[in-house]
Request: fold
Amino acid sequence: MKRVLYPAVIICGLALSACSKSSDSGSTQSFTSIETDVINDFVNKTALPQYNSLVSAGATLDNNITTLNTTTTDANLQTAQVSWKAMRQIWERGEGFLIGPVEGGDYDPNSDTWPTDYHQMDSLLASSNPLALSDVQSLPQTLRGYHPIEYLIFGEGGSRKASELDARKKKYLVSLSADLKSIVTALLNDWTANPVNYSNAVMTAGVSGNGTYAKRLDFFLDITGDNGMAGICNEVGQQNEDGKMWHPYLSKDSSLAESPYSGNSLADFKNNIIGAQQVYLGLGGGKGMKDLVAAKNKALDNKIQAAFTSAINSFDNISGSDNMRFEVAIYNRRPAIQAAATQLNTLQSLLENDLIDFIQTNVKD
Amino acid sequence: MKKFYIILTLGALVYTFSRCNKTGAFPDDGYDDRLSGGSFTTLDASTQAFKQAIDGLTDRQERVHTIGDGTFDQVFVAAPAPHFGGLGPVFNNISCINCHRNDGSGFPTTGASNSGLLMRISIPGQDEHGGPLAAPGFGLQIQDQALLGSAPEASINISYTDVPVTYPDGTIVTLRKPVYTVQNPYTSMPAGYMTSPRLAPRLIGMGLLENIPESTILSFVDAGDKNGDGITGKANYVYDPYTKNMEIGRFGVKANTSTLLMQVATAYQQDMGVTSFAQPLESAYGQSQFSTVGTGDTSPELVDSLLNYVTFYVQTLAVPARRDVLDSVNKRGATLFTQVNCAGCHRPTMQTGVNPAINLSSQRIHPYTDLLVHDMGEGLADNRPDYLATGREWRTSPLWGIGLLSKTNGGTAYYLHDGRARSVEEAILWHDGEAATSKQQFMQLSFVDRVALLQFISSL
Reply:
């Protein structure tokens, strides 16, 4: 009898183990192995390439502003504007994962504080402050970073002319862009080098002694929750006075928009969500959170991917075929803004409820 | 026979009532030790653990909490400005979140955008309510930043000297003793001025502490040290300029503020130079810098609703759950925590009152504080009285959430009223005065037991 039982037990065991490896996606890779890939690919194919691109974009902007300073023409001003928008795109996509040094090292508030203190900016420009790099770096955050540069190179309604840039404004601009370049370089450095070396902290998630992510679960929750994909959906789409879209929409006040001078607010919002989508899908052929979800629940993966697509496409309905700026759309295309916010709310709910539940249920290490 | 039935009935009644009485005594082990904040507990243990709202808010309350959250994070700028104007003319920082990083503690530096330390100041004597006497030209706080064109009141220089401490087992821990120097004052410093450094505290569970019955706090006082453990404790009573009453102090490192409304309003006024209905005067009022904003417009710079919303936000922040409560080392640490009488001041458990405004029913909570002020010895003394708190007395700091401080603070945590301690162990070694016996007992523990006690504290 026992001889009959032993093979039966073994066969049952093999069958059960095979069941555990099977997945909705048909992959035979173990779940923990997918976890490893998702974590490593997030660092090496999503986060680091973006931060490297950000540093390059910062150098380009800085070079173009240096050129604008020496040769102050409308053409060079336009080149600087284009490079500001290019850098802004990478930065905003990086906000799809606000984990680690970008917040902990104050790189976000030092470069992207809103609103700009225009009253003090007038005082600063009228003062005898030398406006050297070190002077700008000691200014309040409301006088540093993207938005003071935006105001200086775009002006009210994007109408800035090179001839309006006097010596003091140009001196301030040169130091602002050098400061911004320095900020994003330090941000990358915190991801790649000691003492912070956040890449290592992520890639050793769950390894004994890791004070940042004692468990891999902690990382996956972080990248999905308030500081990750769900968080940025909330920041852009929440329907109250704290929402990036909703506050200007509700108040019918374009000055409350994120990037009103460049007219880049809508691009900012869309890039935020694209950044979150990149975390979910993975970049550069690497694995993303989708691979983790699809391994166990393809239906949920399909829902999340569809929700990302709908949310991102909904911004195009705001700009429309006439490429309307968000600062105008809050008056003239309000239903499209409402619809985009609803799409973002749906996506956020999927991420912070269904995906978080999935992670808590399935990630065991 | 009739007598028998009467006796039987009475007996049954007595038995029934006695059973009812017994069901009221719910055993301690029937509670979940993880629920530090009772129903106000969150299971979030991430960098955002201190920013979580309590469960069960209505749609309206959730909206108020969210707007309060946004306002808490919002930077203010110089007036006139279309939005969020009113900063300064002198200030310590430009938003709440710049000091309370992730709603936690701050960095023990001054004068920078990420600084979380400020310096209180006063001169000898008391004001008409028994509080500190404002220093002429400075008020009750040194604002070390100013709008362009205005003068900061002064800058604060911090230097540290090493103080080695040796355990009986030979282990040496080096503490750092701070020296604070007021530099570059915009006007001459008043004679006999006294200063007191304050590090921004974490905000979790404030709504619960606000609703601990005064009688409960007073029950912790052991005037005359009747139990002979060296711990007495004292409630601070402070003046609330909004209610115009003397009230029991609960907040601040000297328990010198009675309500969260006043705590928030005073922070906006003193730390940011933003006035409100509860603190309508600029911090620089009467000083030379006031001329840069003294336009005659006395309307609050922070609208009434936003002050109320930020207050509600702070009141409805949840407390992170304890982690690893079943871990054997943590259990050993918990026993030692009681054994060396840390719990004599850091009271583990108490019951809140009821407050329908924040959906608070009576909750059993674990704040690890008694909200009393205690003599902590000469090493920590600021020698600056604050109402009934002497220059050696400090409020027992709540320990809940302390183990997550490093995570919420970008990887580096600082402890005690001025952030001089870089670890919980250093903080313990600074204890003296009423806590001297407990510290000595801690130092007598074996290395393994010390680690267990520290690990237990980190699980809070």
User: Anything to note?
Assistant: Confidence is low (pLDDT under 50) at residues 1-22 of chain A. Chain A has 18 helices and no strands.
